[in-house]
Design a protein that fits this description.
Structural class: alpha+beta
Radius of gyration: 17 Å
Strand order of the largest sheet: 1-2-5-9-8-7
Largest sheet: 6 strands, antiparallel, barrel
CATH architecture: Beta Barrel
Shape: globular
Number of domains: 1
Oligomer: single chain
Order of helices and strands: HEEHEEEEEEE
Helix content: 10-25%
Length: 141
């Protein structure tokens, strides 16, 4: 198993290198619990911002025959996001959490996407390589 473990570690490092070289900064916005703000008289949600590196790819280019991902229908304009496992939180290095369906991502151009489905690619079950997400642009109107 040591040989496979070494292979998966190299795959993980190659993925990180390629995302840094060819990807873009991605911000994962995780919604936290809301708290009551007596000065505003309402509940406000907290957000945690993780900054990492990722690559957005059109589904039509990467998987032209796929129509659903994990039970979610692919719509025109949807993208696949390959999100690295390293991130920063308030400037400190941390592990990038797996995005959830109530999270959003923001790309380097400020475009906001909702998470429709996500998984972590981990062929060995012990060495995660990258998070893969089905994302959809969020309307700003």
């Amino acid at each position: 198993m040591t040989g496979l473990s070494s292979l998966y570690s190299r795959l993980q490092q190659t993925t990180i290198t390629n995302l840094l070289k060819y990807g873009q900064p991605i911000t994962l916005v995780q919604q936290g619990p809301s708290s009551y703000d007596p000065t505003q008289g309402k509940n406000t949600a907290t957000q945690t911002l993780y900054v990492g590196q990722g690559a957005l790819v059109d589904f039509s280019l990467s998987s032209p025959s796929v129509t659903t991902v994990r039970g979610t229908e692919i719509q025109q304009g949807d993208k696949r996001l390959f999100l690295g496992l390293n991130a920063t939180l308030n400037g400190a290095p941390v592990a990038m959490p797996m995005p959830q369906t109530d999270d959003q991502i923001i790309d380097s151009n400020g475009v906001v996407y909702s998470i429709e489905a996500s998984t972590t690619i981990d062929p060995s079950g012990a060495t995660p390589v990258v998070h893969e997400c089905h994302v959809r642009g969020v309307s700003t109107t």
